[in-house]
Design a protein that fits this description.
The chain has 238 residues and is an alpha+beta fold. It has 2 domains: 91 residues, Elongation Factor Tu (Ef-tu), domain 3 (Beta Barrel); 139 residues, 2-Layer Sandwich (Threonyl-tRNA Synthetase, Chain A, domain 2). 18% of the residues lie in helices and 39% in strands. The protein contains 4 helices and 16 strands. The strands form 4 sheets. It has a 7-stranded antiparallel β-sheet, with no helix packed on it. A 4-stranded antiparallel β-sheet has the order 10-11-16-15, covered by helices on one side. A hairpin with a 3-residue loop joins strand 10 and strand 11. The longest helix has 20 residues. The termini are far apart.
Length: 238
Amino acid sequence: MKTDLLFRADAYLRETTARVLSVDDSGIELDRTVFYAQGGGQPGDSGTLRRADGSEIAIANTVYGAGRDHIRHQTSGIAPEALPQPGETVELILDWPLRYARMRVHTALHLLSVVLPYPVTGGAIGDGDGRLDFDIPEAGLDKDELSKRLNEMIIKDAAVTERWISDEELEANPGLVKTMSVKPPMGTGKVRLVEIAGLDLQPCGGTHVRSTGEIGTALITAIEKKGKQNRRVRLSLA
C-alpha cells in the first residue's frame, strides 16, 4: 500500500489522522501524510506523531522510502517498544512555522529563476534563506538590481497554483525544465507543474505559498563564483 501524499494537493494542511503501515529502522510509514519528504533541494518536514493514549513522538525528518509514493517518518533516540505498531491509528502534527518558512523561500527561488533566465545547476532551500546555482558565463550580476527586480514580482501578489500534465506533454515541452542536474520525476504517467500567474511555469514537487505576496521582502545577499560558468546566488527573506 502506498502513502497518500496530502501535501501535494494542499500544502497548508497542518495535521491529519493516519494508519501505520510499517515500522523499521528507516522510519514509520503511514497510509497518508502532510509531511513533505526531503527532495528537490527542500528539507524533509519535522513535527509530532501523537498516539491514541496521548503520548507523543518527535519526527525529526521525513524521507522517501521505496519509490516516490512511500514516505518514512524518521524518529531519533526512540526505543523500538515505544514506537507505534502496524494498524495503529495516530495523529500527525506538522511543525508549521518551519514548513511555511520553507514554502516562502521555495516560491521566491522560482521567481529568482525568472529574474535570471539561465539553466539552474543546483539549489537549496533553508528556513529563511536559499540559493540557486546558475550556468552563466561572465555574469556581471548586481545584488541590488536583482533584489529590486525580484521584489517587483513579489508585490504583484500573483497566484501560485499547481496542475498536472502527462509525461508525454513534458517531453514535448522541454523548455519547461529549468534544472540541469535534477530532472522532474517521470514514469508514473504524470508530472506536477507549479504556475505563478503571468510569471513562471515549471515542473516541481515541492510546497509553495498561495500567492507571491506571502513571500515578503527578499534580499539577494551574495553572488559567488563556483566555476568558470557557475554562479551561486543567495537570497534571504525579511
